[in-house]
Design brief:
It is a single chain. This protein is α/β, with parallel strands linked by helices. Helix content is 55%, strand content 13%. The protein has 14 helices and 9 strands. It has helices at residues 10-21, 37-41, 50-56, 67-75, 80-83, 98-110, 124-128, 140-153, 164-194, 199-207, 214-225, 235-251, 257-271, 282-289; strands at 2-6, 25-29, 45-46, 59-62, 89-92, 114-117, 120-121, 132-138, 154-159. Strands 1, 2, 3, 4, 5, 6, 7, 8 and 9 form a 9-stranded mixed β-sheet that branches. It is globular.
Amino acid sequence: MKIGFAGLGPLGSAMAGHLLKAGHSLTVWNRTPEKAEPLLAQGARRADSPAALAAEAPVVITSLAHDEAVEQVVFGDKGLLEGLAPGATHIATSTLSPALSARLAQAHARKGQHYVAAPVLGRPPAAAQGKLFVMAAGAPEAVASVRPVLEGLGQRLFLLGERPEQAHLLKLACNFLIMSTIEQLGEVFALTEKGGLDRAQVFEVLTGSFFTAPVHKNYGQLIVDRAFDPPGATVKLGAKDTRLLLEAADALAVPLPFASVVRDRFVAARAQGEEGLDFAVLARHAARDAGLGD
């Protein structure tokens, strides 16, 4: 299938590379052109604008860092809306605000285009192996037309209904569970380390007993190893996701007290120059609060 791909950060590049290996014909665009070079070497083609990218393929996937980037790529000069043909589909895999997701659905519908919200769960290594979890929502005919692509991106596809914004709301909720788990792990490691236990030993007990989910194993290992650089997902992105979560909760009149704790951790991390580190670094702040070293 001919696929256009916009947004070649760590996750986007990994997804795009997997699509190439699966045999799809891929055209790519990125605001920083040099990030496309590894994919071009593997056989991808380069478009010089989002509109040109959209004109090349019946399916365009975006993997962009935040709402503002998506708005620019879709609604801006030479944007996706301008180039996407009637009946073609935009798949948004980014973590977006539900409000923007609903706006994208409306804008594409006015142009006779399809829109599918399909945020993903997983880090870049999982994306490179097609092991993401994909949460999709949109008009049934739109989802059906791109289902093979969605299934090819991950190990499981979850279909959530016809309202795209609900997929992005669930993605924010999932990210909150990840971030709050990191906070819990950080506090547990700080408590037990200060009590004389070894971090690696505590990790072995946790993940060898009740706490066996990937979020405990993967992020727990990062915390034990203090492996915060290079990042899979940065403090900057985590702070953005927490802000969007709290905004959605406010709009729905749902109190999220733990999310405010996580927000404050991100504020502290940003204040200490850690925006570019993996958001597992939140656990280091729990250790510092306990009077322990980094």
